[in-house]
Amino acid sequence: SGKKLWRFFLQNNGDEADLRFLTEDPVNYYEHNLKRGDRYEQYTCIGSGCPFCEEGDKPTYKGAYLVVDRREYEYTDNSGKKQKGKNQLRLFVQGMKVISQLDRIHERYGLSNRDVTLVRLGKGTQTTYTVERGEEEKLSTKEIESFLPDKLREEYDGTMDSLMTIVENQLLMNVKDYTP
């Protein structure tokens, strides 16, 4: 439907990014991470009747947030010219180790009222992440709206609940054989 967001990720040891969390709490769910050739594909587990569970794959418990990735990136516009951009809306999905760090920041200081820096340390199964909180700086409804792609802007009504619904809808799109 053209509304699907890319996931946020840090690829290499030492990579870091400043993020603005638009949602305070994660949407918690189970996810299958399946190897397909040299890539992995993620599918939201539907629980009872899940085809991946029936094949014996065990899902992992995850948390998902809506974030703005503050990193600068390059893209090619419609006329073929290279452009620079930043502040891309992403789906932030992590396991409970990172989610618990974010929950601690949320409980003590608030999460959506500041940028945080996420740092990747290590590689493969030895990867860990550290989270550093920035200074408090609230966003207005108009600022949040400006981060949303046109096709998602209509789903935002200025409330945290509507942002949580966007996250939930993103996860629904990852159900096997999803049709809108």
Structure write-up:
This protein has 180 residues and is α+β, with helices and mostly antiparallel strands. It is 23% helix and 36% strand. Strands 1, 2, 3, 4, 7, 8 and 9 form a 7-stranded antiparallel sheet that branches. The protein has a two-stranded antiparallel sheet with strand order 5-6. The termini are close together. The mean pLDDT is 93.
Feature tags:
180 residues, alpha+beta, seven-stranded antiparallel beta sheet, two-stranded antiparallel sheet, 5 helices, 9 strands, 23% helix, 36% strand
Tell how many strands the DSSP assignment holds.
Answer: 9
Distance between the termini: 7 Å
Helix/strand order, N-terminal first: EEEHEEEEHEEHHH
Q: Strand portion, in percent?
A: 35-45%
Radius of gyration: 17 Å
Instruction: List the uncertain runs.
Output: none
Large-scale geometry: globular
Task: Give the biggest beta sheet.
Answer: 7 strands, antiparallel
Mean of residue pLDDT? Answer: 93
Number of helices: 5
Helix- and strand-based class? alpha+beta
Helix % is: 10-25%
Question: How is the secondary structure organized here?
Answer:
Blueprint: E1 16-21, E2 27-36, E3 39-44, H1 51-54, E4 60-69, E5 73-76, E6 82-85, E7 88-94, H2 96-109, E8 114-121, E9 128-136, H3 141-147, H4 150-153, H5 160-172
Antiparallel strand pairs: 1-4, 1-8, 2-3, 2-4, 4-7, 5-6, 8-9
Concise overview:
The chain is α+β, with helices and mostly antiparallel strands and 180 residues long. It has helices at 51-54, 96-109, 141-147, 150-153, 160-172; strands spanning 16-21, 27-36, 39-44, 60-69, 73-76, 82-85, 88-94, 114-121, 128-136.
